[in-house]
Amino acid sequence: MLRVLRVIALIPRNAVVAVLHVYRAVISPLYGDVCRYYPSCSAYGLRSVQEHGVLKGAWLTTRRLARCHPWAEGGIDDVPLPAHSPYRRTRFGFITLERKA
């Protein structure tokens, strides 16, 4: 039962991941390579939601977007990784529970 609830709790995270994939495929190429940071802001947002979930991922992405302005120095700015995660990413970027050993 607990496993089923954990899987259901992943639905919002994977919905946001799907929206970010569509944004990166359709809208992001229209802007070109304009981000001062690596990875780009949309890639940072995708990775932060994948690693931390919708709420904390949105917070980290908002902080990143606030730092991304014409006077920013830029550079490499990776998403802080959690110490341990019970999830894994599929090859399409969606989040699933780790398989039982």
TrEMBL record:
Its main location: membrane. It is found in: Cell membrane. GO terms for cellular component: plasma membrane. It comes from the Bacteria. Keywords: Cell membrane, Membrane. It is a peripheral membrane protein. Could be involved in insertion of integral membrane proteins into the membrane. Belongs to the UPF0161 family. This is Putative membrane protein insertion efficiency factor. It comes from Microcella pacifica.
